[in-house]
Amino acid sequence: MAIEQTLSIxxxxxxxxxxxxxxxxxxxxxxxxxxxxxxxxxxxxEAEGFYAVHRERPFFGELVEFMTRGPVVVxxxxxxxAVAKNREVMGATNPDDADEGTLRALYASxxxxxxxxxSDSLENAAIEIKYFFSDIxxxxxx
Length: 142
Ligand code: CMP
Known about the structure:
Elements: E1 3-10, H1 12-16, H2 20-29, E2 33-40, H3 44-50, H4 60-67, E3 72-80, H5 82-90, H6 103-107, E4 116-118, H7 122-132
Antiparallel strand pairs: 1-3, 1-4, 2-3
């Protein structure tokens, strides 16, 4: 398998529920090592830019409103097959469909307040990591 990096966001609901530590511990247990971490309160412009691909979707306004409600934790995670591994650990977008024990099954309250974001491809992971981190803010562990 290949060592990859992916972007994870602990969304405002995860921060509000005080599960930052539990989520990061789970990533580490699963072989996803944080190599960059920041807490940030997204502006409307930053949230709209991050989710630009969803701009035409009916839920876009609510998604931006939710993502700017409070601070989030953004992380670059590194590990074997990190993009797919992170998505496996998160579970399905809608927590009703998420497998038992996944982060969304454990902590999410709905399809919007779904606690964590993860990049959906290696290509988007690189774009999303660059959105939040400069090269000198990421510390690859290989
Ligand atoms: P995320 O992985 O961050 O990527 C886009 C987000 O849009 C997704 O998680 C959900 O939080 C949100 N989303 C996707 N589908 C819907 C929907 N039908 N209604 C509200 N929010 C949605």
